[in-house]
Amino acid sequence: MKKTYFAILGAAAILSLATACSSKNVNEPTANESSQSASSESSSNGMDESSPMDDLKEDAKDAVLPSEGTADAKQSTMTGTISDIKDFMFTITADGTDYEFSFEQDQKPDGLSDVKDGDKVTVTYTGTVSEVDAFSGTVLSVKKAE
Questions:
Q1: Domain total for the chain?
Q2: Among 34, 68, 71, 79, which is least packed, fewest CB within 10 Å?
Q3: Alpha helices in 45-132 (DSSP H)
């Protein structure tokens, strides 16, 4: 008897979940259809409106990526011990904290080839450096410190 009640209760629960998930109104226009109908209405009214996507595309063209940098970017320096020199990054240990500086493989910073692991160096860079976040900027030069 109890098994029958549980079976009926389980079937009812499954049916209610199935109907709740499929209760989506299919007659509503999708975002694409509504934007097409809005553009056709504006063109039939003689109005020339640009779509929001056109505005986003124009904004994206004008945007400056952090990797591109700007002429007025603030230059900063950090002095520490260099280690883990690789083709695309190196690590500076300053005040017991490790900071990773990354760069494009084909654009090594000036002076990087003159230093080796364990040297005390001064790094000149733009952007921000953090011990937890990835380096977002450009390494301008690496010089051996006195």
A1: 1
A2: 71
A3: 52-62
Q: What are the tens digits of pLDDT across the range 85-141?
A: 988 999 999 999 999 999 988 888 899 889 999 999 999 999 988 888 888 899 999
For residue 77, list its beta bridge partners.
124
**Taking a C-beta distance cutoff of 8 angstroms, is the pair 103, 88 a contact?**
yes
CA distances from 42 to 6, 14, 51, 138 (A): 58, 46, 11, 47
Residues 6+ apart with CB under 8 A from 134: 100, 102
Q: What is the CATH number of the domain that holds 140?
A: 2.40.50
For 2, the token pair is 């109890």
How far apart are the C-alpha atoms of 52 and 30, rounded to whole Å? 16
Q: Which domain range does residue 129 map to? A: 75-144
- For 34, the token pair is 């509504």
Note whether residue 49 is domain-resident: no
* pTM flag (> 0.70): no
d(CA 86, CA 116): 11
Which residues is 37 bridged to in the sheet? none
Q: Is 116 contained in some domain?
A: yes
